[in-house]
Amino acid sequence: MTQFVRKLDHMGRIVIPAEYRKNTGIELCGEVRITENNGKIIIEKLTPECKICGTEENINTEMCICDACIAKIKAL
Predict the structure, then answer these.
(1) Which residue from 54, 57, 52, 47 is spatially nearest to 70, judged by alpha carbons?
(2) CB–CB of 48/59 below 8 Å?
(3) What is the dihedral of CA 56, 58, 60, 63, to 10 degrees?
(4) Quick one: pLDDT at residue 61?
């Protein structure tokens, strides 16, 4: 088991190491759920979804929007 030690910054943030993100499939646009259970902080990967329509298919990770919504926006 690989372990990392990280300090919280002045706003309480930490960086999830790239190795963990890669192993769990957490993408830059991805969301995580953070919960606490008996003093332990649990971070779980959520399935990415389009910020406009909510679909989980064909998500553009740079914009967090699906290809279909991108096409609709371009057609306007």
Answers:
(1) 52
(2) yes
(3) -40
(4) 78
Helices (H) and strands (E) in the chain, counts: 2, 4
What Å distances lie between residue 16 and 7, 55, 61, CA to CA? 11, 26, 18
Look up residue 3 and give its two tokens: 């372990």
Give the pLDDT band (50/70/90) at residue 62: confident
Distances (CA, A) of 74 to 1, 10, 69: 46, 40, 9
User: Where do we find the tokens 């192993």?
Assistant: 23
Query: What are the strands, taking DSSP E only, across 1-76?
Result: 32-37, 40-45, 59-60, 65-66
What is the rounded CA–CA span in Å between residue 13 and residue 29? 17
